[in-house]
Amino acid sequence: MTARISTTACQNRISTSTFISNSTSLDSRSRYLRNLVIDALEGGERGHVGSSMSLVEIVRVLYDDILKQCPAEPHWPERDRCILSKGHGCLALYALLADHGYFPKDALKTFCRFDSILGGHPDRSLVAGVEASTGSLGHGLSIGVGMALSARMKKQSYRVFVIMGDGEINEGSVWEAALAAGKHGLSNLIAIIDYNKIQSYGETRAVQPLEPLLDKWEAFGFDAVEVDGHDVEKLRETFAVRLYQNRPLAVICHTVKGKGISYAEHDPNWHHVNKVTPQMADEMRRAING
Fold first, then answer.
1. Could you tell me the CATH number of the domain that includes residue 179?
2. pLDDT per position as a tens digit, 263-282
3. Would you say 192 and 212 are in contact if contact means Cβ atoms under 8 Å apart?
């Protein structure tokens, strides 16, 4: 057996302390997208604040720069598939889908209303651009493995991106899917972990420690890289370049829960807010816009 030795892989073995995401400033597009999220929070009077804000740059780079997509034809067979497995972060996805024309932006203000298409978790049957109905955590990667295998069998060129939360990957189903992806060498599958280090009721290191996380994904047959999940240029580079052609890729994105709202950052109390008032929404906008 020949050991796999890669300079690039060795360079990726970086301590998580190297990624200081809260130092990454937000540009005008990131602020604009967060304002769309706040519009939805205000309209629905509730929502997952911290979970959505940590995702914005990840979803932004995918939809702005990486995915093959056709909003006018959301079921175009050759489109890339993007599954938001951590469905509670759906406000970030809704903001990008609306901004790309999958549905009118005004719909964001109806979030979680009785007659809205936009629920607290994404529904594939209602929202154009949503690839899988998610929210019960731990299923997105299994769905993605099936899609990636289907593409191979049908000789289609699309890729499958699956975005998971760090708390979500406590689920055993994630690792069963990872085993299958590694076994089949699914080079068209990209697993993305929003590693904000806080889950619904506390820090991941207290609930279920994940480190060494990069080594775990490599042990399951993935190429694995780490990146600042708020650094747009680094995200573009990471999603655009493949290290090996016969392995799936895991991208560990070090992020800040509540990114951009200074008083909500790193605070598990902002995982979900049950009552968002107009005053709270205005405070969030002031924090985002400076």
1. 3.40.50.970
2. 999 999 998 899 999 999 99
3. no
